[in-house]
Amino acid sequence: MAMVKAFGYGIGDIDLANELQYHKVDYLTVAYADEGIALKNKNIHLPIMVMNPDERGIELILKYQLQPEVYSFRILQLLEEAIEHNPQISDIHVHLKIDTGMHRLGFERQNMTELLNHLTSNPKIIVESVFSHFASADDSREDAFSRQQAETLSECHQMISERLGYKPLKHIANSVGMVRFPEYQFDMVRLGIGLYGINPFVEQTKIEPVATLRTIISQIKNIKAGDTIGYNREWKVNSDMLIAVIPIGYADGFPRSLGNGKGVVLINGQLAKIVGNVCMDMCMADITHITAKEGDSVTVFGKDISITQMAKKSNRIEYEILTGISQRVKRVFVRK
Predict the structure, then answer these.
(1) Are 311 and 321 spatial neighbours (Cβ–Cβ below 8 Å)?
(2) pLDDT tens digit string along 63-79?
(3) Residues 44 and 117 in one domain
(4) Which of 213, 214, 233, 304 is deepest in the core (most CB within 10 A)?
């Protein structure tokens, strides 16, 4: 199961989904019905799980044959009512979310009897999978808790399978969980951040980044000692400086917190420090030590400058950096 929610983690969901469909992944996952409908409208035929169905989206889920995550009795009731109002629908495939300890969404173990009463009285509801989510798969200090989560899921899955008379798929492992807990890969794994080449693993892996964020130098300026750079004159120039004005800013997803010496970009193989406040559409970098010209390429993150380092310097996580890239930033997909 491949996660393509949030505009494909900022990479671009349509092109990514097409590539995944070509490689015959089993399922795609989105957060909201609108995301799934957009994929369906672009000839994506894979089963698509919707993680956050709501009252407005239930009818659309039925219409476009999406597969909702059912995590509460309220959602289950909405689904039952929608089926009743659409008798032409032969069945609807759903995914049951079990709360095994993260305490976000999901049914708890004590809900199983009531849940199964609902499911057995509604034969049009087909349980495609029963799943949960590791709370701390990347933290070895919480390994015992992670194992307890997997065991709780297995217990609930067995109860559901026995009562329904068939065995839905079972899954709990996310990107880091599938590596650290291979014994809990079960019937399927959910590949999220790892799909995009971000290494969330404690162990060294061969995963490679798939995304590079590049821009160019718009203008080069000589700044004299004593002058200032950027809004509020935050950066004081102590000695003559050569700066590159770069057309990327916080409206593009380049964090404002990386201004005034905290962030760096890569220009002609060398790191250039961001000087002054990051603007909405631009930022400035010190290239006094770099031979460069206007129009030269600037790498914000990629193979040679880590998105992980960028995230740490901006007090964020990699997920925030990727998903925060504005849709006005052009995506170019290269197939190797």
Answers:
(1) yes
(2) 999 999 999 999 999 99
(3) yes
(4) 213
Q: Which is the catalytic residue, given 5, 97, 170, 273?
A: 5
Q: Are 155 and 279 part of one and the same domain?
A: no
Known catalytic residue at 5: yes
pLDDT in tens, 170-206: 999 999 999 899 999 999 999 998 888 887 565 556 7
Q: Is residue 207 part of a domain?
A: no
Q: Is residue 206 part of a domain?
A: no
User: CA angle, 187 as apex, 115 and 40 as ends, to 5°?
Assistant: 80
Q: Which of 42, 231, 236, 312 is catalytic?
A: 231
> Do 66 and 39 form a contact (C-beta atoms < 8 A)?
no
| Number of domains within the chain | 2
Look at residues 112, 121, 116 and name the one whose alpha carbon lies nearest to residue 83.
121
Give catalytic status of residue 231 as yes or no: yes
pLDDT digits (tens, 9 = 90+) for 299-317: 999 989 999 999 999 999 9
Range of the domain at 225: 213-323
Give dist(CA 309, CA 161) in Å, integer.
45
